[in-house]
Amino acid sequence: MLDPSDLELSRRHLLIVGAATLAVSSIAPRASSAAIDPATPTGTPVMTKVSFDVNGETHRLELDTRTTLLDALREHLHLTGTKKGCDHGQCGACTVIVDGRRINSCLTLAVMHQGDEITTIEGLGTPDALHPLQAAFVEHDGYQCGYCTPGQICSAVAVLAEVKAGIPSHVTADLNAPVRLTNAELRERMSGNICRCGAYSNIAEAISEVAGRSA
Ligand code: FES
Ligand code: FES
User: Fold this and answer.
1) How much is the pTM?
2) Which atom of ligand 1 lies at the shortest distance from residue 107's CA?
3) In the chain, what's the furthest Cα-to-Cα distance?
4) Could you identify which of 31, 126, 199, 211 might form a hypothetical disulfide with 181, taking C-beta atoms 3.0 to 4.6 angstroms apart as the criterion?
5) Same domain, residue pair 78 and 143
6) Ligand 2 center to residue 107 CA distance, Å?
């Protein structure tokens, strides 16, 4: 049988361990926020010059090195067609095409794109001469609020190029056969572009129509 003094000892031990845990957890957030503070000790941003082509035009900018490509496009070049949805790489609203590949522009720093060729929704077509995908989205009612639409269309441009180049996806069953844009392929390849309005079936119809025409 336990002596009452043993019980007192374990209770004290438990209290000490608990207090130590609390102390560590209350210190941790302060330590981590200090670790990720991107400002210099004086709080002055570090500026860097960068130049890249956007929609065929060369732009030279001097930017805070922390500026994302999305913010450079929207806030510095005023190309607001590219949208900021989540700012965390999860919705695809900020999709642009860089050197032929689609990327989430919120997940990349502008200064990493020295010399790159960037295409945004503004570079795909004009109101008088829509890109075939823009026209198909209008024809098939592939949007409701339209917020995701620029990213959807930039992604779809890249998807059509991927299929044409025979690049397989995660759901491609036969790697030796020519790649076809089946419903499963389309949904897999466009899965990074979220539509909060749920216009998916019309979006899929619009892209399939253009894919069928260009096959
Ligand atoms: Fe870039 Fe959502 S804003 S993925
Ligand atoms: Fe509204 Fe897609 S049309 S989010």
Assistant:
1) 0.80
2) 1
3) 91
4) 211
5) no
6) 21
